[in-house]
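Go through this fold for my students:
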Amino acid sequence: MNFDARIHKLAAILQRHDCPAIAMVPGPNFFYLTGVRLGLMERPTILVVTAAGEVHAAIPALEKDMWTARMPQARTVFWQDADGYADALARLARQTGLTRLAVEGGRMRHFEAAALARAFGTAPEDGTDMLLPLRLNKDASEIAAIEKAVQISEDALAATLKQIGAGLTETEIRSRLLINMLERGADGAAFDLIVLAGPAAADCHGVPSSDRRLKRGDTLLFDFGATLNGYSADITRTYFCEEIPQEHRAFYEAVQEANRLGRHMTSPGVTPHDLDTAVQQALSDAGFAADIRHKLGHGLGLDIHEAPQLMRGNHAPLEAGMVITIEPGLYRPGVLGVRIEDDVLVTEDGARSLTQLPREPQVIG
């Protein structure tokens, strides 16, 4: 990965917004720009990129060896726990020569922003919206990483489906899925894996239970993904245990057709507004308007949910290199929920689904 090119990309964004610099903390943008993965702890860990393309940082001393090896080009102030971080941030401010900067408002905590305000002498601006284009279009290495995470995820689910059936609890099924992902090379789960049976699947982001057991005729919804080298998959499939109740087939097939329409429409120049409107209208026309609960999808990369948001009101056209989810769903409380989610790459002349799992109604167990 060419991290220098990414720094210059951010510098160009800062120049367009007449912003002298932006400060970030460990997270997806920090990793994208440095290749360094650190956790948010009690110790402020600050990366500053200027509109001139300079890289400055204030880093806890215990990370010195790793940081120096990975980011030798950064002008770094290191600080010890015993000394505290206030003086280090003041030195960082003097080193940059700036009195104005933006911060990664969607990620940075209040105490870090307040400490920067004291060090730089002015309250920082919120640079959340300014950062949105930074990771919008994926390069070849990012696409390959997401594809690998998708492959691991799909292989793990295929193995899991052979191991489960009526009588198992949601948490037992989830554990088998996680083990199968780890055995196939995943660094871990991209998020808390969702496995919901029967009426519980009507809760869009429900929590698996050790009390709910899969029964004949239940839907079984998996919302899952592996993470690998920082990049993740985000996939949803819904199955039926042993049989498909006749009254549920039309419900499923409406979601299946909406998913097909969304993938078919995805192309450069199409707006998320038009995409979401068309797909939701298809669900409504099928007779299920009352069972719609959410937008069509979202961007996918280092964050599970990132720009662009596939929803009405977003009129910014899709562009080649974006990776998005197409995930229509229908939810009837107390009865069932169905969602089919694919990870889709916008290409120069259309789109390509990175997920290949079957979408047709399937019986397991």
